[in-house]
Predict the 3D structure of the following.
Amino acid sequence: MEFTIEPTVVIVPGLRDHVPDHWQTRLAEVLERVRTVPPLEHDKLSLPARVAALDRVLSEVDVPVVLVAHSAGVMIAVHWAQQAGREIHSALFATPADVETPFPPGYPTADELNRHGWQPIPRRRLPFPSIVAASTTDPLASFRRVAGMAEAWGSRLVDLGDVGHLNPASGFGPWDRAGELLRAAVDLGRPSAVGQEAR
């Protein structure tokens, strides 16, 4: 079922890039105005390369834009925002990966992430409104750590409860709240909502 979101949605996947049964992939299939940051052919773990890939996509998209990022994709978007010169309407950041804390086996090590530019996590307030949707059972980030990121970024924190890392391995696939929270992020970027957040 298609639904219309006025801004263009730019989807920022995590390190596993395009996953056919991922909720981001499903979301892209039902949006009318959407771009997805493509996978890298080389330097797949390089944060600067991934930030540059996001910047290339954004340079081809007219405003307004809403970012929808998941996992390490959130870190890509937040690093991009520290140097960005263009306007972003708002963002939905789902289950950010805590790249400063060691991951479980099968994921890049903290040393690898550090060598490729992922650390430290930016903690400056973002120049656009955002929602951070956090899991209480995420193996890649504790709820407490994600709540701290949301506070530093000036984001609205949403507690998703027991959703793991919000990926196919955790049962998502389709994510029923994706459309709801995307619309909430769009509304958050409207002038009246921004004014209310500032008060």
Q: What stands out?
A: The mean pLDDT is 91. Residues 8-198 form a domain with the Rossmann fold fold (CATH 3.40.50.1820). The longest strand covers residues 65-71. The radius of gyration is 15 Å.
